[in-house]
Amino acid sequence: MTSRSRWRGTPAKVTATVVVALVLGVGSAVWAVRRTGGTGGVTNGAWQTNAHIGSSTADPYLRAAVAMAGLLALNRTETIYYTATTDDAGAPLRSDCRYRVEGRDPPTRWWSITAYGADHYLVANPRHAYSVDRARVQRDADGAFTIVVGGEPRDANWIATAPAGETFSLTLRLYEPDGRVADDLAGTVLPRIQREDCA
């Protein structure tokens, strides 16, 4: 075998090897970030957060997860972020279902609940109903509120979901939270997420 025939096709093999290595390397890194999100994870009903978001103690995995989700996290004394990808029963949030988010004002100066598609972007809808917040939510006489999350528009307390067949998430932001929230991320009373029905 001549040296020329031995090296024929080598650039293609090298290129293929590099592409496979990149796909496996990037894919495994993304999987690790999405799976772990770093240490310090806290669950509160359907809501999840991390005690290190927005702090100097965040490890590289958490920083990468925050960057991927586009949270642009503020310092945790300014804002605490909770995210839900399931309802209270543990079922994934699906755009072909309707949900009730029920509760009272969390212990914070201001709050908002926003829906995001699986791509971490706002869900496009003709009414631009991306979120409900403390200033705009309509409450019952006793101060409680119910927010409907689903595809069918409502006049008030409504958040649109992703196109049919997709999953989505809800992000609860607590701005200038009471100090007790940071001390008890898992025990702070937060709105419940209950599924009503599915198409």
What is the strand and helix layout of this fold?
Blueprint: H1 3-7, H2 10-36, E1 41-44, E2 47-50, H3 60-69, E3 79-84, E4 97-103, E5 108-117, E6 131-133, E7 145-149, E8 158-159, E9 168-177, H4 179-183, E10 192-198
Parallel strand pairs: 7-8
Antiparallel strand pairs: 1-2, 2-3, 3-9, 4-7, 4-10, 5-6, 5-9
Provide the spatial order of strands within the biggest beta sheet.
1-2-3-9-5-6
Give the SSE order as H and E letters. Answer: HHEEHEEEEEEEHE
Fraction of residues in helix: 10-25%
The number of helical runs is 4
Choose one word for the global shape: globular
Oligomeric composition of the shown chains: single chain
Rg from alpha-carbon coordinates: 22 Å
Number of strands: 10
Give the end-to-end Cα distance, rounded to a whole number of Å. 66 Å
Given as residue ranges, the uncertain stretches (5+ residues, pLDDT < 50) are: 27-38
Main beta sheet strand tally, sense and closure: 6 strands, antiparallel
Strand content: 25-35%
Helix/strand/pairing category? alpha+beta
Q: Give the overall average pLDDT.
A: 80
